[in-house]
From TrEMBL:
This is Phosphoesterase. The keyword Metal-binding applies. Keywords: Metal-binding. Belongs to the metallophosphoesterase superfamily. YfcE family. Its cofactor is a divalent metal cation. It comes from Arthrobacter halodurans.
Length: 169
């Protein structure tokens, strides 16, 4: 049986956007598991994601205050369809990230992270896959806002797709 995954980070609601876009909410509601790699900013978004997600896994980010830090861990770990996931908001500089993360998360197959708002999908020499979904609300230096989807199936992560969100008019 396969599991539909959706990856978010750096939503910054309501500072960077009033809320998430309707097409993203549709994708969230269609996913079996939603990952959020921090920088929620407001607990109201956590409440709504908990309500509208079949299963939500989240961590806090550097812009998340005491209320979110009380409800979310710094690091989350879970196994889905035989794939060992870990998630943290910050991984440090891009240079040396793969080696550093492999050392910090030796028991993970996939590490989900955020912070930079820059989409990232690489697999290191030791096999750790690093995923950053970018941001669905604050593109910074990227051409568009983004999130990621994938399917976990019998120990394989497949159909990983960076989903662009069109610029609002």
């Amino acid at each position: 049986m396969s599991t539909r995954l959706l990856f978010l980070a750096d939503t910054h609601v309501p500072k960077r956007a009033r809320g998430l876009r309707p097409e993203l909410w549709d994708a969230i509601e269609a996913a079996d598991v939603v990952f959020h790699a921090g920088d929620w900013v407001d607990a109201a978004l956590l409440d709504e994601l908990e309500r509208r997600s079949a299963r939500l896994i989240g961590v806090y980010g550097n812009n998340d205050g005491p209320e979110l830090r009380a409800r979310l861990p710094e690091v989350a770990r879970t196994e889905i369809e035989g794939i060992r996931f870990a998630m943290i908001h910050e991984t440090g500089a891009a240079a040396g990230r793969g080696k550093r993360c492999q050392e910090d998360f030796p028991d993970a197959d996939v590490l989900v992270f955020g912070h930079s708002h820059i989409p990232w999908d690489t697999t290191g020499d030791a096999g750790l896959r690093l995923l950053n979904p970018g941001s669905p609300t604050d593109r910074r230096r990227q051409p568009v806002c983004t999130y990621l989807t994938a399917v976990a199936d019998a120990g394989r992560l497949r159909d990983v797709e960076l989903v662009p969100l069109p610029t609002r008019a």
